[in-house]
UniProtKB/TrEMBL annotation:
Belongs to the polygalacturonase-inhibiting protein family. Gene3D superfamilies: Ribonuclease Inhibitor. It comes from Raphanus sativus. It is a single-pass membrane protein. InterPro entries: Leu-rich_rpt, LRR_dom_sf, LRR_N_plant-typ, PGIP. It comes from the Eukaryota. One of its GO terms (cellular component) is membrane. This is Polygalacturonase inhibitor 1. Residues 1-26 form the signal peptide. Pfam families: LRR_1 (PF00560), LRR_8 (PF13855), LRRNT_2 (PF08263).
Length: 266
């Protein structure tokens, strides 16, 4: 079929418009609500140089420290990892306004202070929560039990105090807990012997935990790691379960803990 100059021009124009629309739509995949939230987080952290790529004129899916999902979740932010850098302040409560986030990490930021914000409970898709090597204070919050999809919890190397919430054991998908290097007191929850899910990783070392090791803990294999060293635990290490297959360094530096693999009880 012959194409007149006008027809050819029309096709060229339509192709150009389609191209522009494609470029415009691909230029900014990031959800506008997510972008607004991220900019609030940046402001709350005093606009650190570490987040210099967070430019409101650019696609937030290209920003440093975060990841967007694919088209199945409409390119919503699914991961936020703020690691090292000269950043001070508190964990911004706005993190709870990233509803599709699955992984939230603040790590090696010793000028981050304050408590764990309760707005985290709004993150119904959250699977991995790491708030480690910060300077957080206050308790390990009871409200963490609301994170029903949580698989891994790392609150190590902080200044957290108070007792360990027994309700953590009720989380149906939890497979790992690291609460080491804090100032936690009280006893190891008896409920940790009957986690709702199989928990192969439990690290409670370098705290101020007292009392005895619950015998029920022997019901867990802890195949990926178990450590209660550097506490104030006392009494015999329970027998008849998995606890005696761990080495001396799993238990040492406790007040009066005894039994294999430590010295015999007197």
């Amino acid at each position: 079929m012959d194409h007149t100059p006008n027809t050819t021009l029309l096709f060229s124009f339509l192709f150009f418009i389609t191209y522009l629309i494609t470029i415009a739509s691909s230029k900014d995949l990031c959800n506008q609500n997510d972008k607004n939230t991220l900019l609030k987080i940046k402001k709350s952290l005093n606009n650190p140089y570490h987040l210099a790529s967070w430019d409101p004129e650019s696609d937030c899916c290209s920003w440093y420290c975060l990841e967007c999902g694919d088209a199945t979740v409409n390119y919503r932010v699914i991961s936020l990892t703020i690691f090292a850098g000269q950043i001070s302040g508190q964990i911004p409560p706005e993190v709870g306004d990233l509803p599709y986030i699955q992984r939230l990490t603040f790590h090696k930021l010793t000028n981050i202070t304050g408590q764990i914000p309760s707005t985290i409970t709004k993150l119904k898709h959250l699977r991995f929560l790491t708030l480690s090597r910060l300077n957080l204070t206050g308790p390990v919050p009871e409200f963490l039990k609301q994170l029903m999809n949580l698989e891994y919890l790392n609150l190590s190397f902080n200044q957290l105090s108070g007792s360990i919430p027994s309700s953590l054991s009720s989380l149906p998908k939890l497979t790992g807990i690291d609460l080491s290097r804090n100032k936690l007191t009280g006893t190891i929850p008896e409920s940790f012997g009957s986690f709702a899910a199989e928990v192969p990783y439990l690290i409670l070392s370098h705290n101020q935990l007292s009392g005895s090791i619950p015998k029920s803990l022997g019901n867990n294999d802890f195949q990926d790691g178990f450590n209660v060293s550097y506490n104030r635990l006392c009494g015999p290490i329970p027998t008849g379960g998995s606890l005696q297959r761990f080495d001396y360094y799993t238990y040492f530096h406790n007040k009066c803990l005894c039994g294999a693999p430590l010295d015999s009880c007197k």
